[in-house]
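QA checklist item 7 of 12: single-chain prediction sanity check.
[x] sequence parsed
[x] length recorded as 165
[x] structure emitted
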Amino acid sequence: MTSPVCYVLIVIAGLSLGACRQADGPIPAPNQTRQEELVDVARDLQNIASSRDPQAPEDLAADLRRYAQRPDAKRAVDELSTRTARALGGRNLAEQDAQRLAHNLWLAVEGREMSERQIDALQNDVQALLMSVGVAEESAQQVAAQVGEVQSAVTDRPRRWYELF
């Protein structure tokens, strides 16, 4: 016969391990001004894809850089812009895809408290979107990896002790 203490310990251990998962952070939602700015980012992405404007990669970097506050975040955003421009060059990017990609890139820079699970989902969405418009898997992976680097540079969310497990 087992003692009630054993049952209590099992319940406590189960609850402790269940609480180890990192809670999801708030996902920023663009207000009306941000929506208009994201239209500019989407236009930059379409200009990059169609190779109409040689200044488009720098415009994209400037538009995304305005959301980065730290110097290391600005460098990471510049690299994200460069990788995105390289990946999209010469592709056919529909307006809806450009808007989704613009929103995802904005989330990468603006999301300050995203969990690892949310960041992984964002990276997967960026990679899948790029591959759906004809970007090679390797290039899409490089852009998605840089999304993670941007998130590392912009995050304000400290890891809690229970998230280390």
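[x] summary fact logged: Residues 32-50 form the longest helix (19 residues).
[ ] second reviewer sign-off
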